[in-house]
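call fold(seq) -> tokens
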Amino acid sequence: MDTLDAIFNRRSIRKYKPTPVKQDNVQLILKAGMYAPTANNTQSSQFIVIDERTMLDAIAKVHPYAKMLREAPLAIIVCGDRSLEKEDFYLSINGSAATQNILLAAHALGLGSVWLGVYGRQQRMNDIAQLFNLPENIVPISAVAIGYPNEEKVTENRYKENKIHLNKW
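ret:
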């Protein structure tokens, strides 16, 4: 799939078929996440792959916007590692770049996905950290639901000339 096509046509998918995601595709998606740029090339993102139904359902219980995980066959929790990057601010940026790559890779492979925000919401961060027994140096940034889409979304034009400012506001 062409990169611009993936960017322009990827949509957030919240309904999934129960079909498991092939392991080869999971590895490609994780590889894409790891190829995201990071501040000072710290490569500070870590990833938790979840394919057990009980754990997917548990995330849906603690994250108020993760109900689709009750259907999705897979989720990836993107985390930042404070032992590699001392600034949480950069952990969140690095993890966001990894998350975007994961979303685009999933789309390119014919999968649906949706970004679930975690970082910045202390209760969500605490709940995810507790659920996955995260070490102190690991900060949960986002969760991504992934699976074969069971819905179709229309691509809308999001390009708005009035949001562009040339050389000054």
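Residues 3-151 form a domain with the NADH Oxidase fold (CATH 3.40.109.10).
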